[in-house]
Amino acid sequence: MKVFMVLLFLSLNAYPMKPIYSTDRLEAMFQNPKEDLAAAEYLLSHTKHHHPFNLVLAAQALFNHGRREQGAFVFYLFQLRINPWVTAGKDSGMSSLVGALKQSVGSQVHSWIGSDPEAWQELALKAQAAEKKLPLAEQLPPGMTKEKWLALNEELRSKSSKELAETFRSLLKEGKDAFLKQRRANKLHVGPWIDPGPPIPIGWL
User: Fold this and answer.
1) Which residue from 168, 167, 161 is spatially nearest to 127, judged by alpha carbons?
2) Residue 176 and residue 133: Cα distance in Å, rounded?
3) pLDDT tens digits, 27-43
4) Helices (H) and strands (E) in the chain, counts
5) Of all helices (H) and strands (E), which one includes residue 93?
6) Domain segments of the chain: what residues?
7) CA separation for the pair 109, 70 (Å, rounded)
C-alpha cells in the first residue's frame, strides 16, 4: 500500500493537472501581452469551459507572437465555433460584433495566409476536421436545449464544409491567377508563407 501511494504521488507530480481558469482570469490574461500566449495555449485544451468567442483572442495572441500558422488555424476554429452562437442569438447584437472581429482579425490573417492558396486550403481543412473533435462549450445559448444545440452545430458544420469546398474549388481551379494578380497589385506577398512560426501542435489536430 505504501509503495502504491508513493507511485501515485510521483505520477501526479510528473503530470500535474492544468488549472481551470475563470472567465475573468482568462480575459485578464488575454489583455496582458506577457500572459496572452499562455492563455491561448490553455484555451485550446479547455474549450468546453469557455465561450468560443475567446478563440478570436487566442488567434490574435498567437499571430502577434509570430506564431502565424497557429494563429490562422485558431482563427478558422473561431469562425466555425462562433457561427452557431450567431445563429442562435441573431437578435442579441452578437452578429455585428463577430462581423467586426472577422473583418479586423480576418484581414490580418488572410493578407498573410493568402500568399499560398494551396497551403491555405490545407490549413482550413485541418481546422475543419479539428473543430469536430473539440468539446463544445458547456454553456448553451439562452433558450436552447442540448438536443437542438447539437443539431444546429451539425447543420452549420455541413453548410460550412460545402461552402469551403466551393470557395477553394473556385479559387484554385478558376480564379487563382486573378487572385494572385490582385495580391501583387495590392503589394502583398505571393509564394510560400513568410515566417509561419512553429507548426500546429499535434494535440490541436
Assistant:
1) 161
2) 31
3) 999 999 999 999 999 99
4) 9, 0
5) none
6) 22-204
7) 11
Q: Cell match 492558396: residue?
A: 117
Residues 73-110 pLDDT 10s: 999 999 999 999 999 877 667 788 888 888 889 999 99
**Residue 63 is which amino acid?**
F
**Measured between alpha carbons, how far is 145 from 151 in angstroms, rounded to an integer?**
10
DSSP state, residue 202 = G
- In angstroms, rounded to a whole number, what is the distance separating the alpha carbons of residues 203 and 41? 11
Residue 136, SS3 per DSSP:
coil
Query: First vs last Cα of the chain: how many Å apart?
Result: 40
Q: What is the DSSP letter of 175?
A: S
Cell (9 digits) for 183: 495580391
Contact indicator for 203, 124 with CB cutoff of 8 Å: no
CA-CA distance, 53 to 168, in Å (whole number)? Answer: 26
Distance, in Å, from the CA atom of 75 to the CA atom of 119, rounded to the nearest integer, reads 15
Q: Give residue 179's identity as a one-letter amino acid code.
A: F
